[in-house]
Write a structure and sequence with these properties.
Ferredoxins are iron-sulfur proteins that transfer electrons in a wide variety of metabolic reactions. This protein is α+β, with helices and mostly antiparallel strands. It has one domain: Alpha-Beta Plaits (2-Layer Sandwich), CATH 3.30.70. The chain has four helices and four strands, in the order βαβββααα. It is globular. It starts with a strand and ends with a helix. The structure holds iron/sulfur cluster and FE3-S4 cluster. The site of iron/sulfur cluster has 14 residues, from loops. The site of iron/sulfur cluster (SF4) has 14 residues, from loops.
């Protein structure tokens, strides 16, 4: 599966949802997650994310994010259509500690 990681938080560009062939993105207030049982590992979303916030689970160090994606994909609503990203998305791109500061 592919995994949405910390830099999505508060950036939420949503380019990813437009390209996913199986519509497996789910939406929280400040970030999206990928449903690990629905993702078919096609990889097309990874280069589409302007925040570089999508990684293959073959990368090391993603355990926390794998867990978070799996957990929230169960309860958050599905998202398949991109809207305007947050107005301050650029200011939060690359910011450290976003999980603790803003996650929802
Ligand atoms: Fe969707 Fe493919 Fe990205 Fe998985 S890797 S979330 S199937 S676009
Ligand atoms: Fe997040 Fe990147 Fe998608 S910022 S909403 S994973 S395009």
């Amino acid at each position: 599966t592919y995994v949405v990681v910390e830099n999505c938080i508060k950036c939420k560009y949503m380019d990813c949802v437009e390209v996913c062939p199986v519509d497996c993105f789910y939406e929280g207030e400040n970030m999206l997650v990928i449903h690990p049982d629905e993702c078919i590992d096609c990889g097309v979303c990874e280069p589409e994310c302007p925040a570089e916030a999508i990684k293959p689970d073959t990368e090391s160090g993603l355990d926390q994010w794998l867990k978070l994606n799996a957990e929230y994909a169960k309860s958050w609503p599905n998202i398949t259509v991109k809207r305007d990203p947050p107005a301050d998305a650029k200011e939060h791109d690359g910011e450290a500690g976003k999980l603790d500061k803003y996650f929802s």
